[in-house]
Amino acid sequence: MALILGLPTDGLPVTGMTMSSFEALQAECLDQFGVAPCKKECRGCCIKLTWLRDLKENLQLTDEISIRRYVKCHIMLLIGMILFGDKSGAAVHSKFLPLLRDFGSIGQYSWGSACLAHLYRVLCRASRFNCKKIDGPLTLLLGWAWIRLPYLSPLPRKPRSFSLANRYLTLSHFRKAFDELREGQFVWAAYSMDRVDPNIIPLEIYMQSVIWSATVPLVSFECIEWHATDRIRRQFSFVQGVPNQEQNLDKAHGKVLTSPKNLNWATALTHSYWVMHWTNRYNHVLSEVPMPSQYPLEYYMDWY
Questions:
Q1: 98-to-31, 63, 93 alpha-carbon distances in Å
Q2: pTM (2 d.p.)
């Protein structure tokens, strides 16, 4: 999240109150943008992206207030289009707006972990046999896949047959490639100096790297997903042993906002424990002396 999209990964959990009333949505927009959408410019508790886009384009940047409104519009568009998009691709949930009230505190939230929680959730749903579409931060997913599995990246190749689009390979090719994946084809140390020029990544990105290996819940309002770093220890230059029993998120997993919910997810009975677990994330960082070998232990392979 930090290296691919540049999002902060440490900080406050992205959570809080969700309100189902249209009047509350209008009041929040009026307070932050100086203007409120009408009902046709919304979809339930979501604000249509066209309204935000028009507002952003028509703002006159004459003072600090208008500049902040412009930036908030841009952030909401990023949230709705790239970071937390839904399958419609047409609206963004208003639950994120209260987190933008204090302009100076916007960067103090762990937007990276929340976005990753959203990706895990949509991947979980996409794995079901009756799922036909996928949404969420697909820019992140594709970037991750192309970095970790370079042979998947869309590099033009000489076409082997007509049509010329075959130069980009077909779905059957990728399925076969996954089936035949071998040791060494997956890049564990994807951001090492021999793969990424250290001058490309700003030093401040690494300031939060201490918690990248934390085995914790990822929090994004109703969405709780588990960050199972104990199953990808090789990514952090550790030897991969047999991981712990998978975490049971119980009733917190699978919660949705498809129906009206006036609820503070930070203190909700099903979520408060996991929010507190995130707050104690520094106590759950993987600690081990990095090993030069990137090969898994034999007993791990037996377990696998």
A1: 10, 22, 11
A2: 0.89
